[in-house]
Amino acid sequence: MLAPLRFIRSLLFSTDVSYFKFLNRVHDVELSLRAQQLWDVPHPWLDMFIPASSMTTFDSLVFQQLVPVEFGGPILVYPVNRNKWDRRTAAVVPDEEVFYLVAFLRNALPSGPGLESMLDENARILRVCEDLNGKHYLPKYTEEEQWKRHFGCEKWTAFVQHKHMFDPHAILAPGQNMFRRNQNPPRLDQLLLLRSDSASS
């Protein structure tokens, strides 16, 4: 599998594990931290989707400059085929046939850098991601205009239509500040009545 790849052979590091252990590798980190009574520290995790055409630039600006040697957690990098992605989901991915999931799963350990320093580094990394037309997975925007820019016009329009259709009073998921909640939402019995009327008609 490695034969056709171009890389510096002396830098190769590999380990053979079962498929399940590979999929469960982040949980192994959790178990290790729990054994040291360190799991309850803050976890300023950062997940992004980076277009394949931008990965070389992302490497030079982030991996080679912003990411410290003592990172405090695993880094996941792997490619995704866009045609395998379910476009009906609300997650937004780059507009390229191949993009990369890049995940920085850091833990604010007592022996490492402080939480504020990690959050500042995350903010700098996100700026690079946005400049390269990448997408933040599970973003924490606070304004509607930020969400519109994140989704893009077409997907945002469809998202709003679905919201008005299935949750017109903005009861579900209020924490993202995407939609203004109705100040007088219907009671549960009213919703059930509306649902019953709709089904009967």
From TrEMBL:
Cofactors (names): FAD
Family assignment from sequence similarity: Belongs to the oxygen-dependent FAD-linked oxidoreductase family.
Residue ranges crossing the lipid bilayer per the database entry: none
Entry keyword Lipid biosynthesis: no
InterPro entries associated with the record: Cytok_DH_C_sf (IPR016170), Cytokinin_DH_FAD/cytokin-bd (IPR015345), FAD-bd_PCMH_sub1 (IPR016167), FAD-linked_Oxase-like_C (IPR016164), FAD-linked_Oxidoreductases_BP (IPR050432)
Keyword Oxidoreductase: yes
Database matches in PANTHER family: CYTOKININ DEHYDROGENASE 6, GULONOLACTONE OXIDASE
Pfam families on file: Cytokin-bind
Domain Cytokinin dehydrogenase 1 FAD/cytokinin binding as annotated: residue spans: 2-179
Species annotation: Sphagnum jensenii
Keywords, comma-separated and alphabetical: FAD, Flavoprotein, Oxidoreductase
Superkingdom to which the source organism belongs: Eukaryota
Protein name, per record: Cytokinin dehydrogenase 1 FAD/cytokinin binding domain-containing protein
